[in-house]
Amino acid sequence: MPATERSLELARIAATAADDKKAIEVAGIDVSDHLALTDIFLIASASNERQVGAIVDAVEDALRAAGSKPVRREGAREGRWVLIDFGDIVVHVQHEDERHFYDLERLWRDCPAIDLGIPRRRAEA
User: Fold this and answer.
1) Radius of gyration of the chain (CA)
2) How confident is the model at residue 2, as a pLDDT?
3) CATH number at residue 72
4) What is the pTM (predicted TM-score) of this model?
5) How far apart, in whole angstroms, are the C-alpha atoms of residue 51 and residue 72?
6) Which end of the chain has fewer CB within 10 Å, C or N?
7) Which regions in the chain score pLDDT beneath 50?
8) What is the pLDDT of residue 62?
């Protein structure tokens, strides 16, 4: 069963908030056919820990305004990979190094990508 309309709406809101904070390579993956716990993984990266924190704060603020509160938040202290579980979606904000090392898109490549309605900003060379 594909992701719900509510999950898609939340993912697009979160993606826009991340993009507004200059997140790199914001991507959405529909994991609903493979996981019973959530519909969408939203992945974004940043070039430093401070930017990771800014993206996390912006995403949380935007989703709270949309009526969705986080169930769990992990990794905020280190600022290298922060996971925010909103139930319908799970947001991963990673430092670029962790993004390339763990490569979640490769791990979940059997799942369809989601059009988030934002341009995909690449890392500066």
Assistant:
1) 13
2) 83
3) 3.30.460.10
4) 0.90
5) 20
6) C
7) 125
8) 98
